[in-house]
Automatic annotation (TrEMBL):
Keyword Signal: yes
The organism of origin for this protein: Microbulbifer okhotskensis
Record protein name field: Tissue inhibitor of metalloproteinase
Signal peptide start-end: 1-19
UniProt keyword annotations, A-Z: Signal
């Protein structure tokens, strides 16, 4: 009985730490058709700057849109990246390129990723041989 209880406790406490089984970018690439339906905008853009706001558990990332695939957006946009799940990930390396899936907010030019990292760095897209077209 002690072994069963111990085994159950080990399983229960180990599950949250391994909730994100594969990298979020790979999962996004593999499930991009669903992501395209679920999110309001999808674009390819250059990360101009980023800042993590620790007390709010979010990242503010500023992009230049290179190509819009959904939502007809252009120019400069801001992505609020909520860092609230184990599968959250941050945009890194300014001047690098990303495919981004995001939702509208009440403010024009500001979009949101909530919980799951719904973007694919260009390098990963090439590695996965993924393209939105």
């Amino acid at each position: 009985m002690k072994r069963i209880t111990l085994t159950i406790l080990i399983l229960v406490f180990s599950i949250p730490s391994h909730a994100c089984i594969m990298s979020p970018s790979k999962r996004t690439a593999m499930d991009s058709d669903r992501m395209l339906q679920e999110y309001d905008v999808m674009f390819f853009g250059r990360l101009d700057s980023e800042e993590v706001v620790q007390d709010e558990r979010r990242q503010v990332a500023k992009f230049t849109v290179i190509k819009s695939y959904k939502g007809k957006i252009s120019g400069k946009v801001v992505i609020n990246n909520k860092l609230n799940t184990s599968c959250s990930s941050v945009f890194q390396v300014p001047r690098s390129a990303f495919y981004v899936f995001a939702k509208f907010t009440e403010t024009e030019g500001i979009y949101e990723i909530s919980g799951f990292a719904s973007f694919i760095p260009l390098g990963n897209a090439m590695e996965y041989e993924w393209s939105p077209e």
